[in-house]
Every structure is written in C-alpha cells, then in structure tokens.
Amino acid sequence: MEKIRCPWASNNEWNKIYHDTEWGVPLHDDAKLFEFLILDAFQAGLSWITILKKRDNFRKAFDNFDASIIANYSEDKLQALIQDSGIIRNQMKIRAAVSNAQAFLRLQKEYGSFDKYIWQFTNHQTITNHWLDHTNVPASTKESDAMSKSLKKNGFKFVGTTICYAFMQAAGMINDHTISCFRYHEVQGHE
C-alpha cells in the first residue's frame, strides 16, 4: 500500500525522497542550516525540483557549502560560478551566497551558533500545524516576517518572508506536513 504524503511530494521521485527523509525534520546543524539557506535563496522564483536536481552540483561548486570558504570567494571564483551550467547561473544569487556566508559567520560568532540565532524565531521549538489540506498552508507568517526582517538587517540577501517560511518548513522549525501524511508524526519524534 502506498504511503500517504503531502500532495506536493507525490509528483516525482526527487520530491518524494526529499519529503520522506529531510523536509520538516528539526535541524540544528549549522552547516546544514547554511546549505538550506543558500539553496532556498537560489530557489527564489523557481520550482524546488530544479534545485533538488542540481543539489549535488551546488555542493561541488560551492565547496560543500562551507561558509568560511564561500565568504572569501575571489572574483575569479564568482566568474567561474556564473559560467557553471550545473547550477543556477544567476549572478545576483551567486554574489548573495558570498555576502550571506559572511553574514552567517558573523551571526554564528555573535550567538555561539547559527542554530541559536535562527531558532529564536520559533521560540527554540517546532511549531506544529494541523493542516487537513495543503491548500491551507500559508506562504508566510509573523515568524517568517520577523526572521526575514532580522536576516536583512544583518546583511543577508534573498531572504524575503516567503523564502524564510520555506526555510522554516525545510529545517523543521515548522511542521507543515498535512495530518494525513505519514511524516506528520514521524518528524515530531525528532524534536
């Protein structure tokens, strides 16, 4: 018998695997949080499947999302990335990855970890919603508004409230699995 998933996850294998293994699992690893932040920024205006298909290429191109390396990218490295057909070749998003890495490192130093900083927007716990239908899931909330405002104030780019909400969903800060989804209760066990 086929497992019941959130409707968005059933249309292809990429989404299915991501949904079943990562999406909505509370994440407290700084390196992984940075990866999600960078990927969500690149996703702006595109479908998530586009990012998932290029994720391995992004890892290779962006030094496995090592913020300390990305923060020091040279202009030559940026030009090479702009020419890299394996990733999204948006110059503004590529340059934003560098400034976001620099801002990430500043916050990491200030708070002791990026995890401590970012989870403050949900009071350091997962907000568990109870959606019967995925069409009820909002594109943003007061929490994502506050996160977006703070990130922008701290020098981040491509961190509008909708991107922040998608990040919060992915990082398990919000459990937006529909209640009929088999992952709804599973991700709660990770808190």
Describe this protein's structure:
It is a single chain. The chain is mainly alpha-helical and 191 residues long. It has a single domain (20-188), classed as Endonuclease III, domain 1 (Orthogonal Bundle). It is 54% helix and 2% strand. The chain is built from ten helices and two strands; from the N terminus they run H-H-H-H-H-H-H-E-H-H-E-H. A two-stranded parallel sheet has the order 1-2. Helix 2 runs antiparallel to helix 6 (91-111), helix 2 (30-43) crosses helix 9 (161-170) and helix 8 crosses helix 9 (161-170). The longest helix has 21 residues, at 91-111. It is globular, with a radius of gyration of 16 Å. The model has no long low-confidence stretch (mean pLDDT 95).
Would you state the CATH class?
Answer: Mainly Alpha
SS elements, strand count: 2
Order of strands in the sheet with most strands: 1-2
Please, how many domains? 1
Q: Strand content of the residues, in percent?
A: under 5%
Instruction: Give the SSE string.
Output: HHHHHHHEHHEH
Distance separating the two termini: 28 Å
Calculate the mean pLDDT score and round it.
95
Question: Key features?
Answer:
54% helix; two-stranded parallel sheet; globular; 10 helices; mainly alpha; Endonuclease III, domain 1; 191 residues
SSE topology:
Elements: H1 13-21, H2 30-43, H3 48-61, H4 67-70, H5 75-82, H6 91-111, H7 114-118, E1 127-128, H8 142-153, H9 161-170, E2 174-175, H10 183-188
Parallel strand pairs: 1-2
Helix pairs in contact: 2-3, 2-6, 2-9, 8-9
Q: TL;DR of this structure?
A:
By secondary structure, this protein is mainly alpha-helical. 54% of the residues lie in helices and 2% in strands. The chain has a single domain (20-188), classed as Hypothetical protein, domain 2 (Endonuclease III, domain 1, Orthogonal Bundle).
